[in-house]
Amino acid sequence: MSLIALLGEVFGSTFEELGLDRGYGKVFPSQRPELGDFQCNGALAAARPAGRSARSLAVAVADRAGEDERFGEVLPAGPGFVNIRLSDRFLARWIAGMAADPRLGAPRSEVVSHVVVDYGGPNVAKPMHVGHLRSSIIGDSLARIFAHLGHRVTRDPHFGDWGTQMGMLIIGMQERFPGLSYFDEARREGYPSEAPVSLDELSELYPEVARACAADPERAEAARRATLELQEGRPGYRALWKQMVRVSMESQRADFARLGVEFDLWYGESTVADRVERMIRRMERSGRVTKSEGATVVEVADPDDEAPLPPLLLRKSDGAALYATTDLATIEMRVDDLGADVILYVVDARQADHFRGVFRAARLTGLAPGRVDLEHVGFGTMNGPDGRPFRTREGGVVKLGELIEMVAAAARLRLEENDLGGDYLPAEREAIAEAVGLAALKFGDLATHRASNYVFDPERFVSFSGKTGPYLQYGVVRIRSLLARAEAESLTEGGLIPPSRPAERDLMLTLALMPEAISRSASERAPHHLAEYTYRVAVGFTRFYDQCHILREPDPARQGSWLTLARYTGEVLSMLLELLGIDVPERM
RNA sequence: GCCCUUGUAGCUCAGUGGAUAGAGCGACUGCCUCCUAAGCAGUAGGUCGCAGGUUCGAAUCCUGCCGAGGGCGCCA
Question: pTM for the whole thing?
Answer without folding.
Answer: 0.96
